[in-house]
C-alpha cells in the first residue's frame, strides 16, 4: 500500500513541470488523480494515459483555474467522477516578468488571477465537500519569491505572498473540521521554464544555493506527498520550503 492509497487528489495545472511530477508521485503512492490543464491538450491527454498505467483512476479536466464559476463546475465534476475529494493541490501558475515601471496592468491582473485568485476559487468550491467529510488536505504551491521578493517580479511575488496569507487563514478557519492547509515554497527548480535560460544564468543560480544545485520537480512532489498523507496529520498553516537552503 502507498501513502495515499484510497485518497482522491485534484492537482491544478498538472500537464507539465512541478504539477506533472506531483500527479505522478501521488499516483505512485496509490491516489486516484484528477488534474487540470488548459492550453496543453496533448500533454494533458498523455498524462492521463500515464497515470492510468499505475493502476489507479485518473482523469484530466480542461479548466481555467482563474474562472470562479469554472472552479465550481470542476469540483462538482471531480466529486461526481471519483466520489470524494481528499487532497487539493493548487499548482496552476504563470509568470509575466518585467520591471515595475514597465509592467502593464494586464500583466499584473493576469498573474494575480491565475496564481492567487485560482486558490480562492478552488478552495472555496472544495470546502463544502471537505467539511462534509470532516477531512481534507489543501496544498498551495507558493515560492521563495513570495517570502523574499524579487526584482522584476512584483506581480509574481505579490501573488505568491498572497498565497501564504491565504493558506494560513484557511488553516485557522477550517482546522476545527479536520481540514489542513499548508503551502510548499519551491526555490530554483529545474523545469521546462528554466530550460530557456542560458547556462551561465543557470549556473549562477546553482552557485548561489548552499547545496550547489537546482532542485528537481520530484523533490517538490515528495514534500506534497508528505503534506497530503496522514504522516502530516498534525501539520497545518505551515510553509515548507524546498529550496536547498537558498532562503535560510
Give your account of this protein's structure.
The chain has 248 residues and is α/β, with parallel strands linked by helices. It has one domain (8-242): 3-Layer(aba) Sandwich (Rossmann fold). Helices cover 48% and strands 15% of the residues. A 7-stranded parallel beta sheet has the order 3-2-1-4-5-6-7, sandwiched between helices. β2, α2 and β3 form a beta-alpha-beta unit. The mean pLDDT is 96.
How do you describe this structure in short?
The protein is of the alpha/beta class and 248 residues long. 48% of the residues lie in helices and 15% in strands.
Write the layout of secondary structure elements.
Layout: E1 8-11, H1 17-28, E2 32-37, H2 41-52, E3 58-62, H3 68-82, E4 87-90, H4 105-133, E5 136-141, H5 145-148, H6 154-174, E6 179-186, H7 192-195, H8 199-208, H9 217-228, E7 239-242
Parallel strand pairs: 1-2, 1-4, 2-3, 4-5, 5-6, 6-7
Helix pairs in contact: 1-2, 1-9, 3-4, 4-6
Overall geometric form: globular
Helix and strand succession? EHEHEHEHEHHEHHHE
- Kindly report the name of the CATH homologous superfamily: NAD(P)-binding Rossmann-like Domain
Total beta strands? 7
| Portion in beta strands | 5-15%
DSSP helical segment count: 9
Average residue pLDDT: 96
- Total individual domains: 1
Query: The biggest beta sheet, please?
Result: 7 strands, parallel
CATH class: Alpha Beta
Corresponding CATH architecture: 3-Layer(aba) Sandwich
- Oligomeric status: single chain
In the CATH scheme, what's the topology name? Rossmann fold
Trace the largest sheet across and list its strands: 3-2-1-4-5-6-7
The residue ranges in which pLDDT falls below 50 over 5 or more consecutive positions are: none
Helix content: 40-55%
Q: What is the CA–CA distance across the termini? A: 36 Å
Main structural class: alpha/beta
Q: How large is the radius of gyration?
A: 17 Å
Amino acid at each position: 500500500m502507498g501513502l495515499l492509497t484510497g485518497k482522491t487528489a485534484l492537482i491544478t495545472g498538472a500537464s507539465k513541470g512541478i504539477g506533472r511530477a506531483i500527479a505522478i508521485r501521488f499516483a505512485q503512492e496509490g491516489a486516484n488523480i484528477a488534474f487540470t490543464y488548459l492550453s496543453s491538450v496533448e500533454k494533458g491527454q498523455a498524462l492521463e494515459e500515464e497515470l492510468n498505467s499505475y493502476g489507479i483512476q485518473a482523469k484530466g479536466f480542461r479548466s481555467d483555474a482563474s474562472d470562479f464559476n469554472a472552479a465550481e463546475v470542476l469540483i462538482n465534476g471531480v466529486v461526481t467522477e471519483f466520489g470524494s475529494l481528499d487532497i487539493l493541490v493548487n499548482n496552476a501558475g504563470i509568470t509575466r516578468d518585467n520591471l515595475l515601471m514597465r509592467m502593464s496592468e494586464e500583466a499584473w491582473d493576469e498573474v494575480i488571477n491565475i496564481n492567487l485568485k485560482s486558490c480562492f476559487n478552488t478552495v472555496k468550491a472544495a470546502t463544502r465537500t471537505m467539511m462534509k467529510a470532516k477531512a481534507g488536505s489543501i496544498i498551495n504551491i507558493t515560492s521563495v519569491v513570495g517570502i523574499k521578493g524579487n526584482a522584476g517580479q512584483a506581480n509574481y511575488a505579490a501573488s505568491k505572498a498572497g498565497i501564504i496569507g491565504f493558506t494560513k487563514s484557511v488553516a485557522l478557519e477550517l482546522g476545527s473540521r479536520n481540514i489542513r492547509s499548508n503551502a510548499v515554497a519551491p526555490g530554483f527548480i529545474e523545469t521546462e521554464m528554466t530550460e530557456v535560460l542560458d547556462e551561465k544564468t543557470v549556473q549562477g543560480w546553482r552557485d548561489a544555493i548552499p547545496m550547489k544545485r537546482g532542485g528537481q520537480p520530484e523533490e517538490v512532489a515528495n514534500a506534497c506527498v508528505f503534506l497530503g498523507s496522514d504522516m502530516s496529520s498534525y501539520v497545518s498553516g505551515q510553509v515548507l520550503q524546498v529550496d536547498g537552503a537558498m532562503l535560510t
